[in-house]
Design goal:
About 40% of the residues lie in helices and about 15% in strands. By secondary structure, it is an alpha/beta fold. A hairpin with a 4-residue loop joins strand 9 and strand 10 (about 300-305). The chain is globular.
C-alpha cells in the first residue's frame, strides 16, 4: 500500500509485546525485501511503547517520532505556516484503549492536524468499537475518520462456495440438527435457531472471518483421512502421515470457503492463498463503520480496488499523502559558499574519525557481547511477564523408547512419576516466537493428541502408550514427549502451586500443538470431541 501511494517513509508505533514485536519485525522484513527486489529506498522507523504503561509511553513514542526529519523539512512543529509531520505515514499496532490514547495524543502533539492528510494504518487488534470511544466532536475523533486497516478475512462474497453455503444454510432440515446434538454433551447442544436466516453464520462478519477458516481446517483433516485410509480405520500414526502429506510439494490442495487451500513445506497454509482486505474507518452519524476499499492480490502484488470507493485519509481528507521534500536552500551564491564550508568540515571530520577509530574499535568489541547478553535477558523477562512463553513438563523420550516403564501397565499421572522417577521428567520453556509460524520444536518435541478412555485415566490398558512408543522408535531425533496425563498435575488433590501450574500450561497449550510435532491417536470417538478437534486444528496452523 505504501508503494502504491508513492510513500518512501513510514513509522511503526507498536506495543512491545509478542504481537507488536512480531508485527514490527514483519514490516521491517517486508520493507527490506521490497528494497532488495526493486532497488528502492523504502525507509521504516520503529517506535515501541510498553503495554503496561501505554498512557505515558504512547505520547513519548509520538514525541520521538516528531524528531524524525528525513529531509531538511522541519518535522511536526509549526514552521512558516506549515503544520503536520514531514512523515505523514504511520502504522499503529496496539489494542483497545491504546488506539484511543494514540489519536488523542497525536492531535494534542500536532502529529495529526487538519489540512495535512496522513495515512494512519491500524491492525485488526483495534476495532471500530475502540474508535467509537473517542469523545464526540473531539479532534481525536475527527482525526480517526479515514484511518485504514489491512486485515485477513475469511470467506469473500465472490467465492461461489461461500455463497452456496449461505444459500443452503437456512434450508437445512431439523433432523440434521437433532443428529448433531445426539453426539454432543448437554452443555454443547446447538440452539434450535442455528440454521435460521438470522443465524450468525449468515449475518456476522465474525462467522465469515473465523468459522470459515475452521470449516476449511476440518475439511482438510477429512480429506487427509480419506487419502490415508480410504476404506479402513485410521492408523495410530495418522498425525505423522498427515504431516508428511501436507509438507509434500504435491500435497493437499482444494477449493474451500476461504479460497484455494494449499500448504507450504512447514505444513502451514500458504499465505498467498489467504484473503486480505483494505478497509477505511469512516465516521458516520451513528459512529465509525468499516468500508471495504479493495482486496490484496498476491499474484500481481497489488490491490484490486472496489468500484466506487475512494480511500480517505485522516480527518476525512481525500489526500494525497505527501512524502517529505527538501526546503529551498537559498540563492545560488549562498549555496556555493555552503558547499565549500561543508566540504572543509567533512575532510576534517574524516581525519578525526580515522584517528578515533582504532581507539573505539576495541571498546565496541568489548561491550558488544555484554549488550547482547543484557538484551537477551531483558527479552526473556518481558516474555515471562506478558505470557508469551510458558514452562512445560515433558517425559524423557528415551524412557518410553527403551521400555523402562514396562513394570507398569501404563504410565501414572505426573505427581506419581515425579515421586518415584524424578529423572524421567524434563522441563523446557516454549515461546510464541519459536512456535508460531516457525514450528521451532518439531524436531525434538512430540505432543500427543488423544482422547481419554475413562474420566479417571486416559489410557488404562496402555494402548496409547504402546502407540507412542512405536512412533518414537521410528523417530529417534525426538527427545521429549508431552502427554497431558503424564505432564500436567492431575486430580482433585493437587496442591495450590500445582493447580496454578496446570492453569498456566492449559492457557498456553496451543504452543505445543502449533510448535511441536504432533502424534494424533485417532479413532471414531476422537472425531466427535471438541478438545481433540481443537488440537488437530492447531497442529495444522501456521
Amino acid at each position: 500500500l505504501w508503494v502504491e501511494r508513492s510513500l518512501s517513509y513510514a513509522a511503526v508505533i507498536y506495543v512491545s509485546d509478542a504481537y507488536g514485536i512480531g508485527y514490527n519485525e514483519a514490516v521491517l522484513e517486508a520493507a527490506l525485501t521490497h528494497n532488495l527486489r526493486f532497488n528502492s529506498s523504502l525507509t521504516v522507523r520503529s517506535y515501541p511503547f510498553s503495554n503496561a504503561d501505554s498512557l505515558r509511553q504512547i505520547p513519548r513514542a509520538l514525541e520521538s517520532f516528531k524528531t524524525w526529519e528525513p529531509t531538511n523539512r522541519t518535522g511536526c512543529s509549526p514552521d512558516g505556516g506549515e503544520f503536520g509531520c514531514s512523515v505523514n505515514n504511520i502504522l499503529f499496532v496496539g489494542f483497545d484503549q491504546q488506539a484511543h490514547i494514540f489519536f488523542e495524543s497525536a492531535t494534542e502533539l500536532g502529529v495529526l492536524v487538519e489540512d495535512v492528510p496522513a495515512l494512519v494504518l491500524l491492525t485488526d487488534s483495534a476495532t471500530s468499537d475502540d474508535l467509537n470511544l473517542l469523545a464526540s466532536g473531539s479532534a481525536a475523533r475527527r482525526a480517526a475518520n479515514g484511518s485504514a486497516r489491512i486485515l485477513s478475512v475469511g470467506a469473500t462474497s465472490d467465492n461461489p462456495r461461500w455463497g452456496q453455503l449461505i444459500s443452503d444454510w437456512s434450508q437445512t432440515p431439523a433432523s440434521e440438527l437433532d443428529a448433531i446434538n445426539e453426539l454432543l454433551p448437554p452443555e454443547w447442544q446447538l440452539a434450535d435457531d442455528l440454521f435460521a436466516t438470522t443465524a450468525p453464520i449468515v449475518t456476522s462478519d465474525i462467522a465469515r472471518d473465523q468459522a470459515a477458516y475452521a470449516y476449511d481446517a476440518i475439511a482438510a483433516l477429512g480429506l487427509l483421512a480419506c487419502d490415508i485410509a480410504p476404506a479402513a480405520n485410521l492408523p495410530v500414526d495418522f498425525g505423522t502421515l498427515a504431516w508428511s502429506r501436507l509438507t509434500n510439494a504435491s500435497g493437499l490442495r482444494f477449493d474451500g470457503l476461504t479460497g484455494t487451500i494449499k500448504f507450504n513445506s512447514f505444513g502451514s497454509r500458504d499465505r498467498s492463498t489467504a484473503n486480505f482486505e483494505l478497509q477505511n474507518e469512516m465516521l458516520r452519524a451513528d459512529g465509525f463503520i468499516p468500508e471495504r476499499l479493495g482486496r490484496y492480490d498476491f499474484a500481481s502484488d497489488a490491490f484490486a480496488w472496489s468500484d466506487g470507493n475512494t480511500q480517505i485519509y485522516s480527518f476525512g481528507q481525500t489526500g494525497p499523502v505527501l512524502d517529505p521534500v527538501p526546503l529551498p536552500t537559498g540563492s545560488e551564491g549562498d549555496s556555493g559558499w555552503l558547499i565549500k564550508i561543508t566540504v572543509t568540515v567533512g575532510v576534517v571530520s574524516v581525519i578525526l574519525l580515522l584517528l578515533m577509530a582504532r581507539l573505539l574499535y576495541w571498546r565496541v568489541n568489548k561491550y558488544r557481547s555484554r549488550l547482547k547478553q543484557a538484551h537477551a535477558r531483558i527479552t526473556q523477562l518481558r516474555r515471562e511477564k506478558d505470557g508469551s512463553q510458558c514452562t512445560f513438563h515433558f517425559i524423557d523420550a528415551d524412557v518410553i523408547r527403551s521400555g523402562r516403564y514396562e513394570s507398569l501397565e501404563t504410565l501414572p499421572r505426573l505427581q506419581e512419576i515425579r515421586s518415584s522417577h524424578p529423572d524421567w521428567v524434563k522441563t523446557k520453556v516454549l515461546t510464541q516466537e519459536s512456535a508460531y509460524g516457525m514450528h521451532g520444536y518439531t524436531r525434538d518435541i512430540l505432543a500427543v493428541s488423544h482422547r481419554w478412555e475413562t474420566p479417571a485415566s486416559p489410557d488404562p490398558k496402555g494402548v496409547q502408550l504402546k502407540a507412542t512408543r512405536e512412533h518414537l522408535l521410528q523417530h529417534p531425533d525426538i527427545q521429549y514427549v508431552w502427554y497431558d496425563f503424564w505432564c500436567m498435575p492431575q486430580g482433585s488433590d493437587r496442591a495450590p502451586e500445582e493447580k496454578k501450574s496446570f492453569d498456566e500450561m492449559l492457557a498456553s497449550v496451543n504452543l505445543l500443538y502449533i510448535g511441536c510435532s504432533v502424534l494424533i491417536l485417532q479413532d471414531l470417538s476422537y472425531m466427535s470431541r471438541f478438545w481433540t478437534q481443537f488440537e488437530a486444528w492447531c497442529s495444522m496452523q501456521e
